[in-house]
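Below is one protein, fold included:
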Amino acid sequence: YLQTQVRHPLLPPRASVGDLQEIRLLVLGCTHSLEVNQASLFLNQRVSQVALERDVNGIVVAGDLIAGRAHGYAEKGNLVGGAGYTEQEEFAAWQHSAILRDVFNQRFHSAWQSMKRPRRMKADVLRELILRCLPTYYYTPGNHDEWVKWSAFQALDKFDYEVRKKLGHHIHQELNRVGILTQVRVGPLVNQRIIRLEKKWKKDEKKT
């Protein structure tokens, strides 16, 4: 699924060495929040560790952030507490914002220590620091997420709102906790780093 659905533009045929830039992506899919068999320990702990170990620039979640409720999922006992779409999207936002939070914390404190822990920073310096510590998070709805469309709701709309709010709130808290005085608006910076992609299904090419 990831090999067929995740694409990136190829380099120009005559790209020189100076045109090249290394981008490291951690790619996930089918995380199925609030499904009883979700690999929650891996998602809650290991993913952020891998992101830090590999020093990734971006995290790509290629669909199915929630389990959904179609095809008798709740009736078959596949959902924690028979969770509805709102609960699933809120829990997914908590899990995924926690990944970004953990990566941000580690990078931010390492960078802040190297700067000798300043309590005051120019706004542009702090903005650049926050953006440097946050990987870009790309996500796209999968078919489990889009089952909600049958009830005329936008897929992952609640998730999108909650993941941005939770991450922004955490960054504000962390800046306050270490005593950094700033007037920088965190929300626009978070919005730069959380990007929703609309998927375009790739049809299998006929072999010639």
In short: The helical segments are 2-5, 40-53, 85-114, 123-133, 143-146, 157-177, 186-193. The chain has seven helices and four strands. The beta strands are 25-28, 58-62, 136-140, 194-196. The longest strand covers residues 58-62.
